[in-house]
Design goal:
The chain is α/β, with parallel strands linked by helices and about 270 residues long. It has a single domain, classed as Alpha-Beta Barrel (TIM Barrel), CATH 3.20.20. Helix content is about 35%, strand content about 20%. It has nine helices and 14 strands. α1 links the parallel β1 and β2. α1 runs parallel beside α8 and α7 runs parallel beside α8. The chain is globular and about 45 Å long. The two termini are about 25 Å apart.
Length: about 270
């Protein structure tokens, strides 16, 4: 079984300091959260950026500031910008971080209700457009799938040549409007991808650690972070991303899974730095 790759989603685009004061907005806060997560065992930092007032942005300039500062503090960490951005953003706005040539980024693989009137739109043509730009810029995409239909879309587009191997999936489960994060959902998703593919699981809210344990047990990888879950235990706010990563490391040790360094994560995923 491969070593465990831990991704930490340090901020997201929607959660706020009012919900948890450790949610980072400023460059200094982003670096602090990324560094502490990295020190705790995260090989990948999944990155959304904010203005200092917390407003989400896909600004190339802001991403450049944050990415440069993180790389200075943790030179070998894998930085994975989001091309999801925030609900309502257009294609080219969402793709701005890819102009900085990161080694990895996300590619959302289907449309999803996000609760209330919010719809996270990713049409088939959106996905094709994003994939073309991402591969042209020689970036490795993490294929974010919120339900089984998104996996089916990936496999259809793979057959047509839009999505290439190696394929690395991220199962994002428990979103309001998406697939839940029960054990049956986890097995349904992992059994639906090719045997040659790798996968990571991001459990939203109450599903974060139960899904992390399942993924550790069955040879997958894990994403945690304040973007996905604000609590370390029921009713107890996490004091930063570090605590969430440390809890996953503890679970992994109970199952005998060693933690992958960034260099080992690159080897497992087939990344070229």
């Amino acid at each position: 079984m491969n070593k465990l790759i831990i991704t930490c989603a340090i901020s997201g685009a929607e959660v706020t300091k009012e919900q948890n004061p450790y949610v980072p907005y400023s460059v200094i806060e982003m670096v602090r959260e990324a560094y502490e997560a990295y020190q705790a065992g995260a090989a990948i930092i999944h990155l959304h950026v904010r203005h200092d007032d917390g407003k989400p942005t896909q600004s190339k300039k802001r991403y450049a500031q944050v990415m440069k500062a993180i790389q200075k503090k943790c030179p070998d960490v894998i930085i994975q910008p989001s091309t999801g951005g925030a609900v309502g953003m257009k294609r080219d706005e969402r793709l701005k971080p890819t102009l900085l040539s990161p080694e990895m980024c996300t590619l959302d693989c289907g449309t999803l209700n996000f609760g209330g009137d919010a719809i996270f739109v990713n049409t088939e043509n959106d996905i094709k457009y994003f994939a073309e730009k991402i591969y042209d810029r020689q970036i490795f995409p993490e294929l974010e799938c919120f339900e089984k239909g998104h996996i089916d879309m990936v496999l259809r587009l793979h057959k047509k040549g839009f999505i290439k191997e190696p394929m690395h999936f991220s199962f994002v489960l428990g979103v309001n409007g998406g697939m839940t994060g029960e054990e049956r959902d986890f097995h349904f998703m992992r059994e639906s991808i090719p045997k040659t593919a790798t996968y990571s699981v991001a459990g939203i809210g109450k599903y974060e650690f139960s899904l992390a344990e399942l993924s550790i047990k069955y040879g997958g990888h894990v994403r945690v972070g304040l973007e996905d879950n604000l609590y370390i235990d029921k009713g107890v706010l996490a004091k930063g991303n570090k605590e969430l990563v440390e809890k996953v490391v503890k679970i992994a040790k109970a199952y005998g899974r060693e933690i992958a360094s960034p260099a080992e994560a690159r080897q497992i995923l087939g990344l070229r730095r």
